[in-house]
Amino acid sequence: MSKGAPINAVAAQRWSSRLTFVLAAAGAAVGLGNLWRFPFVAADNGGGAFVVIYLLAVAGIGFPIMLAELAIGRHGRSNAELSIARVIGEAGANKAWRIIGALSIFIPFIGIGYYSVVAGWVVDYLLSFIASGGFGYDNPAQYQQRFDDLMASPARLLGLHFLFMLAVTYVVSFNIRSGIERVAKIMMPALFILLIGLVLYGFLEGDFQKGAQFLLAPDFSKLTGESVLAAVGQAFFSLAVGIGALMTFGAYLDEKANLPLAAAQICIADTAVAILAGLAIFPIVFSFGLETAGGEGLVFVALPTAFDQMTGGYFVGSAFFILLFFAAFTTGIATLEPVVSWLEGRGLTRRKGAVLAGFAAWLVGAAAALSFNDWAGVYLLSFLPGWETRTIFSILDYSISNLLLPINGLLIALFVGWALPRSLIGADLARSKHLIALWRFFLRIIAPIAILAILILG
Length: 458
Known about the structure:
The chain has helices at residues 18-29, 32-36, 38-44, 48-76, 80-91, 99-132, 140-151, 154-172, 180-205, 208-216, 225-238, 245-250, 259-287, 296-307, 313-345, 350-370, 392-419, 422-425, 433-457. The protein is mainly alpha-helical and 458 residues long. It has one domain (9-457): Up-down Bundle (Amino acid/polyamine transporter I), CATH 1.20.1740. Helix 17 (392-419) runs antiparallel to helix 19. The protein is globular, with a radius of gyration of 22 Å. One of its GO terms (cellular component) is membrane. Its main location: membrane.
């Protein structure tokens, strides 16, 4: 079989252009964590000093592994499982490396299941805020109560989770150009426009100087070993490496596409969103004296409180929740795609594969949603030390984010760095032997050490 030849119907699909691929891949990377986690992790760990470490980690860990995933996908021209199998066969590598393909299907399947539960919260707040003209509560405690009421309602959580998964399934049921690409071309530019608009609003109406200083002013006294580890972990998790989406997207790339350039553009877009999110949020946070802790408390309690008080708050709040939805949705469709692509490789039509994958993921998410109310006291792994009080949602989130994702990233780095000959996919990436050698050095040494540090110390 010649290099680059399709090995099944999946490989017949192609992105219409490199730009659309970059938009779709950036959509996979840009998620809710960029908007509500990165700014506060950065600010609490040295601000600009943390950002410098984060950027070094993106370049030295995230970028090399992302490039490896894209290269495997384009060379294999199929879903993650078959692409890995093809590369293993051509390299004569140990078949045990096929675990990468299995993880690259399992991780996104479980991931979209519980991720869509949180995305359902965004849908609820978006629709409610726009329809009601802002929440307009009199007492700040009412905003917390509203969120608590949402968590306590199984019917609302399951219904919202269903709506989000239905929309994701519908988009992925089409081919790449008619589904994911069409959505990415609309939502990703709109996401950046909305985000820049919110930054401008913060500059004009919020305490922009204090917010920017809080996020970007370097405080090296806070830069401890723990904060360095946090920066490395944030860089790894925010780039969508290890979830199978980039490997699958790589299979749809044209042979002439410049993979290093595309990977660099994805990394830049993802990092830009994270930093712009901080510059949009912190001026509002400081202007209204809100808590500077990140997470769902910020997004669903603190900021809605501010939106109802500020000038033009209805439009700002609506833009913010639309932004959150776009980030959640583009990540959602990219996460379901590897599973549907795998089912296509098993002989199902794309539409049937999307429905099957979407429904199965909804069932996983349903269990996660119920862990906030009816099943709040169900601790499936209570017999394990340290897992005694983890709910179903917590188990899924921790297992994917803290264990399987870094493990799969580690395996990809070791597989491409050590098990594959330089000539197999290296020639596709750069003409310079020195650049290929540098890339392989980071895959062989730097990335594995950093990921092991995340797993062991984190």
